[in-house]
Amino acid sequence: MARRKLQSSLFFLGAGLAAGCLVLILAALYAPHFKIDSLTGIAFSTVIEELVKLLFLFYLIRPVSAEEKTSLSVIYLAIFFGIGFSLLESIFILFFSSPVGVDNNLLINQILPVLIHVATSVIIGLALSIKKKESKTLSGWLIIFFFLALAIHLGYNLLVLFKS
Description:
Layout: H1 2-30, H2 39-61, H3 71-96, H4 99-104, H5 106-129, H6 138-163
Helix pairs in contact: 1-2, 1-3, 2-5, 2-6, 3-5, 5-6
């Protein structure tokens, strides 16, 4: 059982990393059309990030058996997914930010992005963990939780944009 949990954790960590790679590729494709540090660029990239998380988590959590798909197990897996997702962004910020900015804003540049990605992954994961028996409107919950995750992420990104 412990071995299976470790394998699942590492799989979700890797899947989060793959989702982060996909977001970076998509960002490179739309970067010529949007200035990334503009309001439009921030909003667009946030929507893309959350949609990629939603799609990845939907297809990763869906095959998990009903016995294993408790809210707690989904939270656990979503945490690892969020950590994997945030790794590339943190590395990107670390190497492509000025050294002074990274030193002065370690909390904002390195720690908070990880927490934001973990939190939004958990929110989306929770929506996906709602069993169909418990809710006939799974898609309704998914939409509500998606927009909650999107609002949290967008709020953070706007805070960083206007702070700098």
